[in-house]
Amino acid sequence: MSVGKMFLSELQLESEVTRKYLALVPFDQADFKPAESSETLGRLAIHVAEITAWWTSCVKDDTLDFIDFEPKEITTQEGLLSYFDALLDEAEKALAAVKDEEFEKNWSMTYGDDVIFTLPKMQVARIFCMNHLVHHRAQLGVYLRILGIPLPAVYGPSADNEDVTTVRNMFL
């Protein structure tokens, strides 16, 4: 199996769970923060969705420049899911077509002329694309739990969903 298809398979599994979390975001509480230093619920949810675009950047580009980055304004669950689905479709296509050699190249995150970091694309895919997504999805889960919203199963039954069949079907 190619590296791109390996990451694609993993992204598809994680995206099923991510989409379930995003579908739970109550935009009538988008300004909620669990602490003063925390990001708002709305911004965190959009960030979880937009991380999916980084897969496409990692595969197709050698740099992601944040100098002109403007976070997308989304105010509904439907808008959030549509945004996520479109980014996921692009990422899936990019990962399905990428050659293994691409993952040996370096990729940099920049802010104008300032290089924030440079790593091989293989590490960027694992750390920046996948682990970063899982990290922020877990944060989103904390926000939702504080708001009393039951969480779906992720890697096993959750305290809110102990249906083992649901979890088993995630991996079949």
Discrete helix count: 6
Number of beta-strand segments = 3
CATH topology: Four Helix Bundle (Hemerythrin (Met), subunit A)
The percentage helix is 40-55%
- Uncertain spans: none
SSE sequence, one letter per element:
HHHEHEEHH
Give a quick rundown of the structure:
This protein is mainly α and 172 residues long. The chain has 6 helices and 3 strands. Helices cover 53% and strands 9% of the residues.
How would you characterize the overall build of this protein?
This protein has 6 helices and 3 strands, in the order αααβαββαα. By secondary structure, the protein is mainly alpha-helical. It has a single domain (3-170), classed as Four Helix Bundle (Hemerythrin (Met), subunit A) (Up-down Bundle), CATH 1.20.120. Strands 1-2-3 form a 3-stranded mixed sheet. Helix 4 (77-97) links the parallel strand 1 (63-65) and strand 2. Helix 1 runs antiparallel to helix 4 and helix 2 runs parallel beside helix 4 (77-97). The chain starts with a helix and ends with a helix.
Topology of this structure?
Layout: H1 3-22, H2 41-50, H3 53-60, E1 63-65, H4 77-97, E2 106-111, E3 114-120, H5 121-146, H6 164-170
Provide the descriptors you would attach to this structure in a database record.
globular, mainly alpha, Four Helix Bundle (Hemerythrin (Met), subunit A), 6 helices, three-stranded mixed β-sheet
